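Table S5 (text form). Sequence records supplied for joint modeling of the two-component complex.
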Amino acid sequence: MRIKTVVIDDEPDAVNFICSIIHDHCPELEVAGIAHSAAESELVIRRSKPALVFLDVEMPMGNGFDLLTRFPKKEFDVIFVTAFDHYAIRAIKFSAVDYILKPIRIREFTESVNKYLLTRLNESQNIPSYDLLLENLRAPLPLKLAVSAFGGVEYLTIADIIRIESDGSYSHFFMRNGRKIMVSRNLKEYHELLNDHSFFRAHHSHLINLMFVKRFMRLEGIIELEDGSRVPVSRSKKTLFLHHMSQISK
Amino acid sequence: MNYFYFIIENMARTGIHTVVFLLLIVHILFLYSPTRGEHGQRSSGSAMDMVRKADSFLVVQDIRMAQRWAMKAKAQIFASEFNEDVPTTLLAAGVFGDVFQPGFGFSLLDRLIREKVRMSPGEETKVRNLMAGLTFQMGDYDDALTMYQANLALARERGLDSLKILSWMGLSHIAGVKQERNQQIGYLEDALAWTMHTGYKGLEAETRMMTGDYYMLAGLLPASRESFLQAQRLFVSRRDSAGMLSSRLRGAWVAYLMKDYPVALAEFRNGLTLALNLSRHFSIANTYGNIGTVFRDMDQSDSAAIYYQKGIKEASRINDYYNISWICFDRYEMFRKSGDLQKALDSYILHKQYSDSLEAQQSRRYLEQTRAVYEEESRQQQLELLSLKLKQQRMLVYALAGGGILVIVILVLVILQIRLNNRRKMAEIKRSMTELTQRNLRQQMNPHFIFNILNSIQYAIYQKDTVTVNEYLGKFSLLMRKTLENSRHTTITLKEELDMAALYLELEAIRFKDKLTWEIKVDDEIDLLDCRVPAMLIQPFLENAISHGLKNKPGHGHVAIFLTQQEDHIRCVVEDDGIGRKAAAGIAAETNARHQSLGTAIIQSRVELINDLYAKDLKIAIEDLYDPSGKPCGTRVVIHLPVILKQ
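The corresponding structure-token record, covering 897 residues in total, follows.
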């Protein structure tokens, strides 16, 4: 039995495009319904009970996120489709939810669908609700970060992350309460994601939260953090580090 | 008045060269002072009366009485202001110099210079020469030297011949005091040459007197005698009895030194007659004494004794210790030689007594002089304080004036600053304009719009609908091109603006298929190429109409642009039949969207800036439309477009 989907976009061409791609490239999926506005889509979803929704972020009569608030109990997965929205995309990324950019590349689309199918197969994975997404969307800077740990998705309060250490394609999160979390994504991704927060890449394999810096041993080039851990600073980053620290202490 | 010359006659005996020279100078000082003793007719205050009285005593060589009156005058001058004219001041300064108060005399003259009192060249000559002379008399030889040299330079510069001669004479005196004999005679020769060149007989006579003195001291007695004779002739021709007296007596003394006793005696006797006529007490006493000595050396002791006695008597009348002293000494020598020891002893005692008195007198004078210098200094200090006070007052005036100027300068600066600010403000407006235009561009080139169009094109390609792809891409490129082009200008022609609007509407219509229709109507009168409008003025209203008014509306929507020519402006109407502003605002409030129409806000700032920049009244009014039943049925934007000419 194929997986039921609903496609929601206010532009007829966009809806038609996604339907064509699903029809031609995603044999596991079937389109159970389409909608051109948020109001319309609620009805369609309730009637056709899809497992997956392709949702345009920008829509008349309430945007895509508004639709989610109408389903507080998570009843379906969502892949966002968006033309352009800096804030929305960032919130989506922090919430570990998938999204596709317009104009749509067919390969990107199918990869996204395959990823969905994989998670769906892995029963132990707990499927994230959209509360985090909505929460992050409301704050000027996302407050929480969704990471896929081995036990499932974890929501980490960003202000509680002391440092992140690289371990090949994995990353170790060191939290304020002493917890250590291993995540199957590399440090570079988190560096990118947390660049607007108070994080600093002190070293190739160390991303530290500047809020937890205890002292800097200039001669040795070592930063000591509040939890007593010590992190080396690349020689080339010393000046930048001091600059960031002076900005923070202001 | 030349009585001091007589002192020189006894110089050999008393050996007080310096004192003699000092006294001698006093005479020189007054060479050019106004003829004294002739000022009685002027009444210029009691102080000057006293000065004149002192002067009259000086004329008869009664220095004791002269001093008494001069001191009274000085007290008077100290008590009140001294503001006499130049000749009077010169007279007073001269008198004070004669009574051994050179410092005080100097200060009187100094006032003339300080207050820049106007003087004739003759007066200036006298003032400057006397000041230098008084300085000399005070013992400040170096200062005096400087002053004489300054006078000489001034005289050369201004062609003041007499000042030139007098300066040489003064310099010669200083050289004499410093024992620089070559210089002394050099200056005298200069002075003499110039007096002969200019024909100043009086000055020539005085110079010759000085030359005679010089030769006498140098032991060149015949030359000295010749000089005195020449001086005497000149004085005679000028009917200068005082000069005649002194030159004659001086000549007589040289004759005596040359042991030409008969001539000396004859000359002394002539001189005595003259001195008696003129009542020159000092000269009389001195001459009696000298005649006595001539008789003594001619071994006529009795005659000598008689003249000595006469001299002593005359000298006693004016407390002239100097003459008494030396006459007694000469008499003592005479008696000792003749063996009349009792008389010799009496004379010696008398000599001793008077020379002591003389010394006392001189030291007293010295003391007085010192005191005078002190008084002068304190007076100068007072003057300095006073001038300081004046300076302070002047400073106050300057400060006030300076303050005024400062205020003006500040005002000017403030005005310039304001003008600069205005210019800066204009630049700022232009900059903001550009910035806002570009933000507006971004609004038009709204990423959503772009990527959604691209998505539609992508779909048409996927559908292999080549005609649509072609049409779509063509129009999209055209809009991009126009947008990029227009972004360079603040204003564009109305035609360009409408073309853009049309393109935008076309593309939106393609996106939303038959859901959107549009029209643009322009009055025939309007010349679209002549008329300029701010770039991207209309587009944001179109976007608002579509995304808020029409997209949220179930069913079909219509956007229209009407342009009509009014009296002085163009009326541009953008009208839609959407859900109306209220409903759209309600939806916007419900959603989380941040990116809701910044468009109109930007438009509002742009309108303000355009009005600032072009001093136009571009106005925008937004009306809500209602159908007959009172239901909202759309929004109308009315743009009041003033004509902006190409800049």
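Note: The two ends of chain B are 99 Å apart (CA to CA).
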